[in-house]
Amino acid sequence: MLKRLVLIVALLITAARADAREYTDVYYNPTESGWGVFLVQSDTTQFLALFIYGTDNKPTWYTATLTQNPAGNYTGSLIATTGTYFGSQWNPAQLTVASVGTVSFAPTDAYHATVTYTLTGGPTVTKTVQRQTLTQYQLAGNYSGAMSGTQSGCADPSNNDAHLRAAYNLTVAQTADTAATLTFTFTDIESAGMVCKFQGPLTHFGRLYKMSGAQYTCTQGGGSDTGTVTIDSLHPTGQGIEGKVTGTIVGCAMSLSFSAVLNN
Fold first, then answer.
1. What is the spatial distance between Cα 214 and Cα 224, in angstroms, rounded to a whole number?
2. Taking the domains of the chain in order of start, what are their residue ranges?
3. pLDDT tens for each residue of 27-50
4. Whose CA is closest to 259, among 19, 1, 20, 3?
5. Which is nearest to 135 in space by CA: 206, 202, 203?
6. Counting beta carbons within 10 angstroms of the beta carbon of residue 192, is it exposed (0 to 12), middle (13 to 18) or buried (19 or more)?
7. pTM for the whole structure
8. What is the CATH T-level fold of the domain 2-15+135-262, as seen in this structure?
């Protein structure tokens, strides 16, 4: 029973593809509020718009289209454009587009990054940025979903599994922007009857939440397990909720992704 508990809890954890992590958000430096970066991502391509200040201390902006390199960072050319005054009818002949340097976006985790840009004949600027939070998200609700994941490094090698799968119903309770409880009740044939509850404080970064030190309890029949894990990239989607869990459960290293749709 406990062995099955290890296997199914692992389904809460999976290693995402390096090129699948989503960085779309607004980024800024909390100690330098007033400038920032808009970032929209499509697979391994990012579009950036930097709203900063020129040598005259007046607002200026640059754009860039970045592509991912083997290290998981994004690089491209920095572009400056000019065009028709916004209060006038657009005149295509007035559009100018010039490459004026280079820019890179180097994630340090799901929430923070280093932005470096160099202007031709000018300075190289390096900034540490993070996702900018706008408003609280509503996570509470009842969901149905599936998960897949891996578990490795188990004391009993027969527990290692790189292709775990499970289905579940999920109930999320939320205390404002400060804490949440996620209760997974498994519904697939092999794991029916297992219930895993994760609860802990929420830290809000832009479009994502992080639960560090989330306490979990998993039960099935007469077996149970408790401990601490981390839930990363927890966020609502247009249809439901997604997240990632990492940690050690019953002596096995877990890495998980879960996704669920909201039950109306």
1. 17
2. 2-15+135-262, 18-131
3. 999 999 999 999 999 999 999 999
4. 20
5. 206
6. middle
7. 0.86
8. Lipocalin (2.40.128)
